[in-house]
Amino acid sequence: MAHLLGGESLRLEFATTVVFESVTVGVSEGDRIGVVGRNGDGKTSLLRLLSGRLAPDAGRVTVRGGVRIGVLEQDDVLDPSLTVGAAVVGDRPEHEWAGDARVRDVLAGLVADLPWDAAVGTLSGGERRRVALAALLAGEHDVLVLDEPTNHLDLQAITWLAAHLEGRWPAGAGGLLVVTHDRWFLDEVCTTTWEVHDGVVEPFEGGYAAYVLQRVERDRMAAAAEARRQNLLRKELAWLRRGAPARTSKPRFRIEAANALIADVPPLRNPTELARLATARLGKDVVDLVDVSVTFDGAEGPREVLRGVTWLLGPGERTGILGANGAGKSTLLGLITGAVAPTSGRVKRGKTVRVAALSQDLAELADVADERVTDVVARYRTTYRAGAGRDARDLTPGQLLERLGFTAAQLATPVRDLSGGQRRRLQLLLTLLEEPNVLVLDEPTNDMDTDMLAAIEDLLDTWPGTLVVVSHDRYLLERVTDQQYAILDGRLRHVPGGVDEYLRLVARLAQERAEERAERAGSRGPDGADGADAADGARPASSAAERRAARKELAAVERRLSRLTAELADLDRAMTEHDPTDHVGLVALAERRDALAAQVAELEDRWLALAEAAD
């Protein structure tokens, strides 16, 4: 494969640390490379070096003649005075860009909902990010360098972006370098993974899943080698310590060999480990939303964000909330936490419920920005009980922070000087220290590296309370939640098929709206034949692939049905054993049973449809 760009013997040093030491990497035609690593280890610096945005202290970067490099940086570099149209297509004549199928696809995938003549300065941060990405993808580039391209994108946009990058160049052409914390996106797009750590760049074949498998094998082999080295070390140290008087008579080469073993102890990688903290007891009633609607006053009049939502959140449930940006996900979380009052309907919370929420904006840290990290944590208690049973032990604030990945130097750092990922970790820790039994997470993966995400998922796997997660990170949602709900047109809908079913619903809804608009405009008949043809073209061509997907979803639905059926039986038993004079309690149980029975009926319908599709 032809060489596109690369770096040879790159060295980069900042005021307090050496980021890279003699790093050599290259990008060839057809490479699709995902860059992973801990926050602060140099992922963004590597992209900036290779794209020419940053000069190395030593070594050189080479670019093949004529290669066009397009870069998406994390910083907002758009001119706020430009319109959306001018920012995306520049001064190109309309007939030129409108006749380009790739440009039309980019516009439809990223900025279709934005006013073409709106000034960039009037847009939100997420909208500006989409405009910047659209402007980059609308151009002609041989290499794309993308730094966190999925930030502020919803699930539909992330899915579109993955498909666009997969089909942007012919096989064996073009080059892609991408830094992202979205593991699903890495698996979908990348064929090679670079891990940046400890001043080096280590390549792995395949996407994120293949990288994890290879890294586990690498660590296993390293652990075996270290165990052998430690065994030899113990023998040599025992030999050295056999009596001080005889030490001078021992052969010098044996002493030097033992000292070399001692000096060769490798530095510990910064381990990221979260402690499992105590959780307050949770009763049978958690949070019930009954026929809730929420309306906000806007510039164009009242806007109904949620309408007629009924949702009985039970103890121990692990739920993911899906929806486009602006659909009302954060509003729904606000109803659970009490931050948002319903316009109509009622919200009922159990007496023992203690809700803690992890917000998107790090607002909890604003009041402690000037304080040291250890002082902030010590404000809660001087010791913390972590783990359970035999593994339970008391930890100081410093020990707890170190288990969360903070180094000794960072413990004395003011909160304002922490990186985005470090502040996010501290925010999560402070949330857990409140010892809630209902945990609400709104986009918890922002600014976190893949190692930290894996640690959070490990924590959430063992979380004993009720969990509600809003995230566009498909990998996280599918890993830590058992069920998903979607907000569509202001209503909350259970999606037994998870993210795949949600994406199908969104596509079908968009198609129906397009057909309605076309019918009103008189441009097509009532059957919407053109729309049906377009929908057929969007479906996978392979019926075998459809059957495999149906069988996979069918298995998930069967597992969910089994669990819900068992819960229904438990409720029936509880109603039978309940005090018949407690009418209020019986009504609450009956409401919960009706909601559960509705879920079972919906799942059974879905099971029948999938069983037919899988045959």
Q: Which features characterize this protein?
A:
615 residues, 6-stranded mixed beta sheet, 20% strand, alpha/beta, Rossmann fold
Structure description:
- This protein has 615 residues and is of the alpha/beta class.
- The chain contains 20 helices and 20 strands.
- α19 (543-577) packs antiparallel against α20 (583-614).
- The longest helix has 35 residues, at 543-577.
- The radius of gyration is 28 Å and the shape is globular.
- It starts with a strand and ends with a helix.
- Residues 243-250, 265-275 and 523-542 have low confidence and may be disordered.
In short:
The protein is of the alpha/beta class. 44% of the residues lie in helices and 20% in strands.
CATH architecture tag of the largest domain? 3-Layer(aba) Sandwich
Low-confidence stretches: 243-250, 265-275, 523-542
Could you name the CATH topology of the largest domain? Answer: Rossmann fold
Helical percentage: 40-55%
Overall average pLDDT: 80
Strand composition percent: 15-25%
